[in-house]
Amino acid sequence: MIKKEMIAMLLAGGQGSRLGVLTQKVAKPAVSFGGKYRIIDFPLSNCINSGIDTVGVLTQYQPLRLNAHIGIGIPWDLDRNIGGVTVLPPYEKSGNSEWYTGTANAIYQNLEYMQQYNPEYVLILSGDHIYKMDYEVMLDYHKSNNADVTIAAMPVPIEEASRFGIVVTDENNQINDFQEKPEHPKSNLASMGIYIFKWSVLKEALITLKNQNNCDFGKHVIPYCFEKGDRIFAYEYNGYWKDVGTLNSYWEANMELIDIIPVFNLYEEYWRIYTKSDTLPPQYIADTAKIDKSIISEGCEIYGEVYDSVIGAGVIVGKGSVVRNSIIMKGTSIGENCTVNKAIIAENVVIEKNCNIGVGDDSPSRLDPKIYAFGLATIGENSFIPSNVNIGKNTAISGKTTAADYPNGVLASGEYIIKAGDM
Fold this sequence. Notes:
Blueprint: E1 6-11, E2 32-33, E3 37-38, H1 41-49, E4 54-58, H2 64-70, E5 84-88, H3 103-108, H4 111-115, E6 121-126, E7 129-131, H5 135-144, E8 149-155, E9 165-169, E10 175-180, E11 189-198, H6 199-208, H7 217-228, E12 232-236, E13 241-243, H8 247-256, E14 284-285, E15 290-292, E16 295-296, E17 301-302, E18 305-307, E19 310-311, E20 316-317, E21 322-324, E22 327-328, E23 333-334, E24 339-341, E25 343-345, E26 350-351, E27 356-359, E28 377-379, E29 384-385, E30 390-392, E31 395-398, E32 410-411, E33 416-418
Parallel strand pairs: 1-4, 1-6, 4-5, 8-12, 14-17, 15-18, 16-19, 17-20, 18-21, 19-22, 20-23, 21-24, 22-25, 23-26, 24-27, 25-28, 26-29, 27-30, 28-31, 30-32, 31-33
Antiparallel strand pairs: 2-3, 6-11, 7-13, 8-11, 9-10, 9-11
């Protein structure tokens, strides 16, 4: 029988609904990040950099692009005869067929996959966080404490602690209390949703809780292990970690990449981030172009001006156009004499000439004020914006729009256009 010391299970089935139109047709872990990457590249790269060569990726919501991106795992050196990367969608079983109904339920439905490697330890990861972490160091910590479960945790400002699962530890970092999104948190150590389990402990917990509705690690598995008296430790992490689950945190994390001294450095030799790269020609910067403090990916053609922005592969910025504080994803084309300010524009969007995006006041969104906020203009993939229109802040657009969709050539701040079939 094959024996692996530790295998990783990467949860990548989430919709990421707080990213609005960006995740209508694509799972959150497959959303572009930093010009040439996708969000899932970060945990996958962490795995191979940490010496973990067996990764199960659990997919569910809109998995096509994620599956195509991962392929057989070549960019991450995960194309192995034994182990490597395996995409694990829900599947029909002889007794029943069901969707994954919670993080722990998804892992439970793949017990057979894990069993074939007979691991000593199982690492549970989320597919939608941006960070670099050596899981081998966390495993050494887990072993040295003879722990049954180790939870990666990081200090957060106490006023934000109620958004997270909070762990309370003793002087040896052993967890003696666990609060799931508490109103009055007892500590500021937040669970990062990264767990190492002894395989025997994980298996027993999942089988015991198999009939639990929407079985989840934070809500059910960890409290169950805690009540059972398992040894649970917190592994404190103090590096960069970002949950890019909202449009604002996603925009901020991209903008942090272009700081003079970036908090999160994509350019370190010893901890590379790997991705599936398309074969594209080099970027072209015209004599009319001006660029300052921006990431410009390969295959771009820049004829206009770009400031403080992250530009994906194959993007065209037309002559006379000015892009500021924005994220423009792969394959998008911006016509001549446009202004784009604090916008997130998804893949393969066409913006015709003389458009102004991100102008006007800060009126709240009528579609969803919690999602479309922060003064951002957000345009979903494959959308079309006709020439001579002005688009306000806190706006959302998805689909092929026409001049008739913009009364007097304007989409006011807080308004939206979602074409039928685009939700």
